[in-house]
From TrEMBL:
Coiled-coil boundaries: 110-137
Compartment(s) where it occurs, according to its Swiss-Prot or TrEMBL record: Cell envelope
Comp. bias regions, Low complexity: 494-552
Record-given protein name: Biotin/lipoyl-binding protein
InterPro entries registered for this protein in UniProt: Beta-barrel_YknX, CzcB_C, UPF0194_transport
YknX-like beta-barrel domain segment(s): 575-644
Keyword Transcription: no
Spans annotated as Disordered: 338-362, 494-555, 730-757
Signal peptide (residue range): none
Highest taxon, organism lineage: Bacteria
Organism classification: Bacteria, Bacillati, Bacillota, Clostridia, Christensenellales
Primary location recorded for the protein, binned into one broad class: other
Keywords, alphabetical: Coiled coil
Length: 757
């Protein structure tokens, strides 16, 4: 029994050992199966995202750039003008067409050309007569006052240029017109004060004047006193019964600024503090300018000279030809009538158009008969002789009349540009020599149909900027009259009048926003300006004006742009630069341009224009920057080609460079790791100062020496990191307990990313 029991016990023990061994083996296998992917993942992550690199600090060149794209355009454009009263028969080109010098762009109606030439010659003759009448007229050689008052400031002296003095001081002199000076101050106490209270005003020379409180509040008090004696800009003390209330600076209560025409001061005919009357001479000029009417007429004559030159040139061939080769960028005219009929070209279209309108291009005596060709669509050989009374062309629809809108100081337009089949006259109400401020002007215009033309009963007109009233059409069969009235909006209020109104309001409210310091009173202090008057002294308030805008408006109304041609090479590129980069762009910066169509070639360019007007799209503001290419000739580049420009912002040469990945940041510090014998992490941590960066390398200004080695963990691309993460089954922390992404700096510091797992 005992032996059996012992054997049985041994068998049980042996069996138990095998079970334990099997369990241990099974546990080991399970542990290996679980840990192997983690081990492989960690090894892979260390290989993919934690590759340790070293780089040598080397000298080189680094450049910062801004990149933009756009389309090539021609650097120069040519506008071909056409007088507005010439009829276009056919337009032979479209936008985008390439033309050579001398190519015909459009054919013109011969009769309308001859009529326009005659009208231009007539206008020149009329202008010459007017110029002869006023050529000896000059502006007044004296500057007089239009108001009574007291002279409180004089800025001009003998030999001074009136325009220079006005630019520097705002006027030639300043006159007080209400007999008062004023001072505004903050009162130390208002006890015993009220509107109308009398106070003592002590001047800087010790003299005392009696003042009167005109406005009063806890924070501001204005006192007026006589203008006979006290000086503008004087520092004064205000007191009541021996108690000082405050201090301030004297101003003119109601100032009038004296302006004058162009000239040189020969003499100053008044003195400071002198009392003057309206019409008194203040200054005498040595050189009187020619009259403004004379200058206006000369400008108008120059415009008609240019128009006549253009007309005579077009009349040689009854067509418009290209003055130089290039690409048509814009066609601004259309053929008369149905645009589909413009397919006719050459003399056939021209003669057909002339005949259809019943217009003769013959010159000479037309009193008895005018021979006109009446074209028949079915029988081109049928020619009918028509009498003048038989050939009448209806003027229907809307006729556009060009009139320069009234502007202060400009001379009213005295002529109407003749149109195709009519002439015109104009008169103004009120009949001022110059347009005055704050006035509603109306132009009474009469259009007379030329022989062989007739305004239809439903004919109407349009004048830009005016309301048309009282249109009447006379009943005559030929040569009838269309009359109407064009009413314009009131001209702007005169600046001086506005200032005078501001002065009155300022006086009423005690507003002392402008401090008088002996200089020119500002607009807020109520300064009013008067111009030089004529010899009789009847000055009128006016602002300085220029005939330039009137001249430009007149020329635009007489000539229209027919074609715009891009000439020269496609050497201009405009790119849009982000608002974050625009302040780094300067005129003269160099750029490298690459065309999509010519990827193997690069072109040099220079920034020539930077726009200050931004465009907002999807919350992003960009600014146009124009680059001019200087070596595009013969390359095959065409306007419209896509191009990418790389603008060089800054360049550093012979400087220390390291890879940008080697630069670490923590807070406000930038540092690198120096390869050495250190057992901690990558090596010694050293603070550096950086300069330019091009996205790959960075300039080191201080902290490193050439030849030193820096260590860093090279970051992987986003795609590689994503693939690595997909390969790892499960989570886990990157080796050494660092943070993933961006090249984790050992021994602390975050470079983005986050813990795995």
């Amino acid at each position: 029994m005992g032996t059996k029991g012992t054997k049985s016990a041994k068998k049980k023990m042996t069996k138990k050992k095998w079970i334990i061994v099997a369990a241990v083996v099974a546990a080991g296998v399970l542990l290996a199966v679980f840990l192997l992917p983690q081990f492989l993942f960690r090894a892979n992550m260390q290989s993919e995202a934690g590759i340790t690199r070293t780089a040598s600090v080397e000298k080189g060149t680094i450049e910062t750039t801004v990149v933009g794209s756009g389309n090539l355009a021609a650097g120069d454009t040519l506008q071909i003008k056409l007088p507005s009263d010439v009829t276009v028969d056919t337009v032979l080109v479209d936008a985008g067409d390439t033309v050579a010098a001398g190519d015909t762009l459009a054919t013109l109606n011969a009769a309308s050309l001859q009529s326009a030439i005659a009208n231009a010659e007539e206008e020149l003759s009329s202008l010459d007569s007017k110029i002869d009448e006023v050529k000896d007229d000059t502006e007044s050689n004296t500057i007089t006052s239009a108001v009574s008052g007291r002279v409180k400031q004089i800025f001009a002296g003998e030999g001074d240029s009136t325009s220079n003095i006005i630019d520097e001081n705002g006027s030639l002199a300043v006159v007080s017109i209400d007999g008062k000076m004023k001072v505004t101050f903050t009162p130390s106490s208002t006890d015993g004060l009220g509107i109308g209270s009398e106070v003592d005003v002590t001047l800087s020379d010790g003299d005392t004047e009696t003042g009167t409180v005109s406005t009063l509040s806890a924070k501001s008090c204005t006192v007026t006193l006589t203008d006979n004696g006290p000086t503008c800009g004087d520092d004064v003390i205000i007191s009541l019964d021996g108690t000082e209330l405050g201090t301030g600076t004297l101003e003119i209560n109601a100032p009038i600024a004296i302006l004058g025409g162009t000239g040189t001061i020969e003499s100053v005919d008044v003195s400071l503090n002198e009392s003057i009357s309206s019409g008194d001479t203040l200054f005498t000029l040595t050189e009187a300018a020619v009259s403004r009417e004379y200058e206006t007429l000369l400008t108008e004559r120059t415009e008609y000279e240019e128009i006549l030159r253009i007309l005579l040139k077009y009349a040689e061939t009854n067509s418009i030809t290209a003055e130089s080769g290039g690409t048509i960028s814009e066609v601004s005219i259309t053929a008369a009538g149905d645009s589909s009929a413009s397919t006719s070209t050459g003399s056939d279209a021209q003669s057909s158009s002339s005949a259809a309108r019943g217009v003769s291009s013959l010159s000479g005596n037309t009193d008895d008969f005018v021979q006109l060709l009446s074209a028949s669509s079915g029988d081109s050989e049928n020619i009918t002789l028509l009498t003048e009374s038989d050939a009448v062309t209806e003027l229907t629809g809307v006729t556009e009349i060009f009139v320069n809108n009234p502007a202060i100081g400009n001379t009213p337009q005295s002529t109407i540009m003749p149109g195709n089949g009519y002439t015109g006259t104009i008169s103004w109400e009120p009949a001022d020599l110059k347009f005055e401020a704050g006035t509603v002007y109306a132009a009474n215009i009469t259009l007379t149909a030329a022989p062989g033309y007739h305004f239809s009963s439903d004919a109407t007109v349009n004048v830009a900027g005016a309301k048309i009233e009282n249109i009447t059409v006379s009943p005559e069969t030929s040569g009838n009259v269309l009359a109407f009235r064009a009413v314009f909006e009131a001209t702007a209020q005169d600046t001086q009048q506005d200032q005078q109104a501001a002065s009155a309001e300022s006086n009423a409210q005690g507003d002392n926003s402008a401090a008088a310091s002996g200089g020119m009173p500002s607009g807020s202090s109520g300064s009013t300006s008067y111009s030089a008057s004529n010899a009789s002294g009847s000055a009128a308030a006016s602002t300085a004006s220029s005939s330039g805008s009137s001249s430009s408006d007149s020329e635009d109304s007489l000539l229209q742009t027919a074609f715009t041609i891009q000439t020269g090479e496609a050497n201009s590129l405009t790119v849009n630069v982000d608002e974050l980069d625009i302040l780094t762009i300067d005129i003269g910066q160099e750029a490298t341009i690459v065309l999509d169509a010519l990827p193997d070639d690069s072109f040099h360019g220079t920034v020539t224009k930077i726009s200050n007007s931004g465009t907002v799209q999807s919350g992003v503001t960009t600014y146009p920057v124009t680059i001019t290419l200087d070596d595009i000739s013969g390359s095959g580049a065409l306007t419209g080609m896509n191009a990418t420009a790389t603008i060089s912002i800054a360049t550093s040469t012979d400087v220390l460079l390291i890879p940008l990945d080697a630069l670490q940041e923590m807070g406000n510090e930038q540092f690198v790791y120096i390869v050495g014998d250190s057992d901690e992490g990558l090596g010694e941590r050293r603070i550096v100062e950086t300069g330019l960066s091009d996205g790959t390398n960075v300039e080191i200004i201080s902290g490193l020496s050439e030849g030193e080695q820096v260590a860093y963990i090279e970051s992987t691309s986003a795609g590689d990191s994503e693939q690595t993460m997909m390969q790892g089954m499960g989570g886990g922390t990157p080796p050494n307990g660092g943070n993933m992404g961006g090249g984790t700096p050992p021994n602390g510091g975050n470079m983005g990313g986050g813990p795995m797992g």
